[in-house]
Amino acid sequence: MADPAVASGGSLNAGGRGSGSKAASSPAENYHLARRRTLQVVVSALLTECGFESAEKAVVETLTEMMQSYITEIGRCAKAYCEHTARSIPTLSDTVVTLIEMGFNVDTLPVYAKRSQRMVITAPPVTNPPVTPKALSAGQKRTHPPHIPGHFPEFPDPHTYIKTPTFREPVSDYQVVREKAATQRRDVERALTRFMAKTGETQSLFKDDITAFPLIAARPSAIPYLSALLPSELELQTLEETDSSEQDDQTDSENTAGNIITDDPGADKENSMLPPSGVVPSTKASEDNVIDNPYLRPVKKPKVRRKK
Amino acid sequence: MNRKKDKGFESPRPFKLTHQVVCINNINFQRKSVIGYVELTIFPTVVNLNRIKLNSKQCRIYRVRVNELEAPFIYNDPTLEVCHHESKQRNLNYFSSAYTAAVSAVDPDAGHGELVIKVPSELWKQGDDLKVLKVYIEFSLDQPKGGLHFVVPDVEGSMAERGAHVFSFGYQNSTRFWFPCVDSYSELCTWKLEFTVDASMVAVSCGDLVETIYTHDMRKKTFHYVLPIPTAAPNISLAVGPFEILVDPYMHEVTHFCLPQLLPLLKHSMSYLHEIFEFYEEILTCRYPYSCFKTVFVDEAYVQVSSYASMSIFSTNLLHSAMIIDQTPQTRRCLAQALAQQFFDCSKSQADEWVLKGISGYIYGLYLKKTFGVNEYRHWIKEELDKIVDYELKMGGVLLHPTFSGGKEKDNPTPHLHFSIKHPHTLSWEYYKMFQCKAHLVMRLIENRISMEFMLQVFNKLLSLASTASSQKYQSHMWSQMLLSTHAFLKSISNVSGKDIGPLIKQWVDQSSVVKFFGSFAFNRKRNVLELEIRQDYTSSGTQKYVGPIKVTVQELDGSFNHTLQIEENSLKHDIPCHSKSRRNKKKKIPLMNGEEVDMDLSAMDADSPLLWIRIDPDMSILRKVEFEQADFMWQYQLRYERDVVAQEEAISALEKFPTPASRLALTDILEQEQCFYKVRMQACFCLSRIANAMVSTWQGPPAMKSLFTRMFCCKSCPNIVKTNNFINFQSYFLQKTMPVAMALLRDVQNLCPKDVLNFILDLIKYNDNRKNKFSDNYYRADLIEALTNSLTPAISINNEVRTVDNLNADVRLILEEITRFLNMEKLLPSFRNTITVSCLRAIRQLQKNGHIPSDPSLFKSYAQYGHFVDVRIAALEALVDYTRVERSAVELQWLLIMVQNDPTHYVRHKILGMLCKNPPFTKTTDSTLCNEALVDQLWKLMNSGTSHDWRLRCDAVNLYYTLFGLTRPSCLPLPELGLVLNLKEKKAVLNPTIKPELAVGTVMDTPASIGIHGVGMSYTVDEEPDPISLGVCGVGQPPQGLKRKAETPLGSPPEPGQVLQQQDDDGRGGRYKIRFNTMEDEDIDMETVHDSQAFIHHHLNLLERPSTPGKEPPSVEQSMLSMPATPVPSFSKEATSSASKHGSEHSHHHHHHHHEHKKKKKKHKHKHKHKHKHESKDKEKERERDNSHAYSNSPASGRSLRSPSLSD
């Protein structure tokens, strides 16, 4: 599962920034490379126009880069101006203002455009602008409600904010489910205990082969009753689950066995330790203030005269 | 006979205690020490009270002051070392009598005590006006081995963070272990208790917490308790620790305490306590006697429940969360038990204790009936009855109300026991449990006789009498009315009910033993009469003859009829007319006892007889065992249709003898019947598996219970998979737990567990799924492991090859894999009370025992270590005990015995000895290589001196010794031939030194001017110089030797035994004569051992007990003793002799006791030993003789008559 995710993330990235490092493979990259090639041709033409016979590749590259930046900046600014005036498509005047803003003398533009020695470049090949990849679109995207203008961005895929429906056909055969859950749990437990046994001290039941049935060595603890009496976190968690999760037992029956072991609900231990019969403690808490119990009374300060 | 006379209660003491202050200034958890003082306010009841005897053990006493005047005192504890150590005596009779004597010698109920304080002569005159005396005693305890238990976990942090705590504990009256007091249930006084503890700690004690005050440095605080209700010292307790405090939400006067982090469990476990309170108060129509109640939950508790005045100390292991099913009823029972004991807690004498235990057990039973239902109650009664019957038939009778007084009677009330029942401290624990069990059963019998209503009225009367008495604050003489006695109890019964229960009391209370009936019947068709024959066995041990009414219930076709028969001397046969004619095929419902009418399939029954089933004594109104013979179909009818659970259970156990398809069907039907009591169904499981095994060749269909289990607990669609756990229905939960365990006991023709049963159990484990369950499945899983264990059968071994992994049986491999996984998972996710580890350990032991895996104790040893949960330790120790027996391993036995001596947890020590008794490595009747002299010595040492800090443990050690060696000298010991030679040698060698110690003692005792000498008591033991004096004074030392020698040698003036002492010494020196007495036994002491043993004694006394050790200039004291003029010698020796022989019976009424007792003992020995000729002397010499006979009975060479004629009159 992980690999495709990484790949798609990468391709998204490439789509935005046009990184050339990768061999062109996807249509989106082809599109961008074609544009850039046109730019390079333009730069070379300009150089020739200025009288250069040849140019180093790096120079051409740098100039292309500068050119691209310049054009991009014009586009960006023009868009900003247009949006500033609450429009969605830039007009000529937006571009003009942009150029002025960038310190370009607009009046020289017609003259420059009509100069005699300019070279005519063939139009770049018509390539279709790339379509946004649909790889991750899952489920039905919500359409805008009527009060949201259509030009506003679309809703993201529902899985990003509602849920991820899996499209695998759920295993409905009860026997298989149980079998699978049991095996999975057993495997996990065995792997875990084997691991613990391998990494720690062990005891063995056999003298000839001490690895046969390794038992994790018994280790005395300073306060043995705590672990023996307090419910383990797993048990508490299961308890909570049984309280709340009665409805969707179908879906999680496959993967919870794994989850249970790995999940760590340690954070809210304080709360979860309370027994589910929360009635008594709560009434008690509210009454605590009025209870007159000698053990709750404040400890008195010693009298000065008293000698101990 | 007590109850016949006593109108007013006569105190055995020459004073009345009215008030006691206990102040503990400092509790040091690091060093495990305690410092404090007590102040007793006493009223002398005689003129010229010059000696005060108090109880105190292991306390180090610094000073004693009486009314501000320094008072000399003597401290002597004869129970420290029961028999003189050098003695070669090794027979238990001898030990038991010596031990009883030692305990009697300090028995507060006889007015004795370990601590004898001499009232300064300035105060003597006060006695005339009977003015108040205030006795102030400063004491400390250092690493107490009994009385107080420190739990100090070895982790980082302050004591409070570590959860360190300390609490008082003991077996019966054991308060003397932690402060000087009158340690008797019959001496009541009011109390003021002060405890200064660390500011982070809480001190919980008896009575009302008046205030809590910081000390000046604000680092500590003092808890001030006042107990205005007169209370006996044994009911005083203390618990100090960083407890979490929970005020009961329903009753604000009740406060619960638990160790840090356990508060949620405490909240849950205590949520129903108020119901128990309400129940008791309602039935007794009496308020709870104290104004507050506290429950404290501590780790390493001595017993699960111990009840004290206004507080109870519980084991912390009783706490549980809401997820736990099995522990819940157990915890509730414990709470109910503790509360029941709160209402009645003091008795006049040991002999009246049965009333206390009986009443509290009885009202506890009423609570069970109300909470858990009538079925559970009757089941419990049957269980208890079976228990007591089994015990008495096996071990001999349990006597509720022993009478020891009455001068000339020679009989020991319980000659069959290897210990004395005169003192609680000599009682074996098992006996004591049975005693309590019998007491409440007898109470129930009384209830049967006088009705419950009257019974409760009696209790109410007793309680209101007590509360009236206790409210009379300043009239301490009234307080004795608070003491419960057999007499008062019986009188109250006769007043309230007007019924005479004398015969009942005589039968069950004044006599031990139970009744054993055999019943059979024949139906006389002609007369339409049931001829019932009831025979009794009253000759075997533990049985008695019963004469009186007995109820018989006969279920006939026309209904159920009760008949009351009279059991008389000679009539065995009883004719009971039947009400119904036999009839066939008449479809008519059959009325049952409870009025219900049912259809029955009558085809199984005898066509000629209208009898369905017969029950003898159905109400269990006799303490009896009934073996009744009736046909199998009658048992089957009884099982199916009798509604009483007791009848059903009886039927089930009877059906085991009838492995027929009909029995199988009856059992299966019961199993399936949801209305049936679940414990009956559980029992049916096991019976069914036994029947199936007996029918193995003809059994048809799947293994027993398998289809039933599948139907009840497996999925409909896939019958091989168990449903996900849902334990909401407890009845089926218990059944689900039990069935696999019982199924695993099935065997096929090869006597192996059937393959499909094993696979079935393995599948249960595999598919076990607890995720949707609101209850924990730890007990269920533990039972599944137990099922695996039950399925094991002995491995087929070919010429004893070593067990290796490779030749492991395939099935066993599967089992072992499960066990390994369970055990390992438990390390990561421990289950409640580690039940799974416990089951796994048992399984592993079983695998070893059956030869599947190599037998090896090392795993168990590591689990038995301190630091594991106690249940796990016990399971591991059980395996070790078993290993020791099977492998006859001396190493493991040593290991266990060392643990008995050293383990920090008293309960574990107790358990080890208990398990060794139950599963002994060898017994007195079998030979074993383990049985050797060293072991005898070791065990002897253990019970003689190694367990002096814990009565219960000492009795356990005695039990073990009895189990291993019996009453007489262990057979593995060499004949003590050398005794005589050595004695002769000794006679010559040690004449002088042996006189000296006597002198020293005498000096101490008899010079009243010895204010400065009050340290003498200690000097005995502190003394390091192995000289005869110190030895002699050790409380176990030589004086008797000297004495004896004198007696033997014509030189010595033959003392007039008894008289002198009695005249001179009327205020008693219980403390001292004990010494003498004990030492008396050592006639056969040999010089060779003396010096070594001196060192040993010093070592022991100093290290183990430090009985009394102010250690103020011991040398000088010794000096003074030595330098005393020699003139008083004769009188001292006389006195000593006489005291020894009198065995401390200064007060005339005690006098009788002792004589009586000694005679009894003597009688006992007479038929045990061959040297009867030595027993002919007069009363006064009895005891001496007895010792003598012990000493020499085993030594064929001991022709020498130690007791020369001069002595024996």
Automatic annotation (TrEMBL), chain A:
- Main location per UniProt? cytoplasm
Entry's Gene Ontology BP terms: cell differentiation; transcription initiation at RNA polymerase II promoter
- Localisation per UniProt entry: Cytoplasm; Nucleus
Q: Where is this region: Disordered?
A: 1-27, 124-144, 240-308
Key word Transcription present in the record? yes
Q: Which UniProt keywords are listed?
A: Cytoplasm, Developmental protein, Differentiation, Nucleus, Transcription, Transcription regulation
Q: Which Pfam families match?
A: Bromo_TP (PF07524), TAF8_C (PF10406)
Q: Which GO terms describe its molecular function?
A: protein heterodimerization activity
User: Record keywords: Protein biosynthesis included?
Assistant: no
Compositionally biased residues, Basic residues: 298-308
| Cellular component terms (Gene Ontology) | cytoplasm; transcription factor TFIID complex
Q: Where is the composition biased (Acidic residues)?
A: 240-252
Q: Where is the Bromodomain associated domain?
A: 31-108
Of which family is this protein a member? Belongs to the TAF8 family.
Q: Which PANTHER family match?
A: TRANSCRIPTION INITIATION FACTOR TFIID SUBUNIT 8 (PTHR46469)
> What is the protein named?
Transcription initiation factor TFIID subunit 8
Automatic annotation (TrEMBL), chain B:
Q: Name one GO cellular component term.
A: transcription factor TFIID complex
Output compositional bias ranges, type Basic residues.
1148-1175
Q: The Transcription initiation factor TFIID subunit 2 TPR repeats domain covers which part of the protein?
A: 632-990
Q: What are its GO biological-process terms?
A: RNA polymerase II preinitiation complex assembly
Subcellular locations according to the entry: Nucleus
List the SUPFAM superfamilies: ARM repeat, Leukotriene A4 hydrolase N-terminal domain, Metalloproteases ('zincins'), catalytic domain
Is Transcription tagged as a keyword? yes
Biased-composition ranges, Basic and acidic residues, are 1176-1189
GO molecular function annotations of the record: chromatin binding; RNA polymerase II general transcription initiation factor activity; transcription cis-regulatory region binding
Q: Which InterPro entries match?
A: Aminopeptidase_N-like_N_sf, ARM-type_fold, Ig-like_TAF2, Peptidase_M4/M1_CTD_sf, TAF2, TPR_TAF2_C
Quick one: where's region Disordered? Answer: 1034-1072, 1103-1209
Q: Which domain of life is it from?
A: Eukaryota
- Extract the CDD domains matched here: M1_like_TAF2
Which ranges carry the Transcription initiation factor TFIID subunit 2 Ig-like domain?
514-630
Q: Does the keyword Ubl conjugation apply?
A: no
Task: Name one matching Pfam family.
Answer: TAF2_3rd
- Start-end of Polar residues biased regions: 1190-1209
- Per the record, the major location class is nucleus
Keyword terms of this UniProt record: Nucleus, Transcription, Transcription regulation
Q: Which PANTHER family match?
A: TRANSCRIPTION INITIATION FACTOR TFIID, TRANSCRIPTION INITIATION FACTOR TFIID SUBUNIT 2
Concerning its family, UniProt says:
Belongs to the TAF2 family.
Record protein name field: Transcription initiation factor TFIID subunit 2
Q: Which organism is it from?
A: Lates calcarifer (Barramundi)
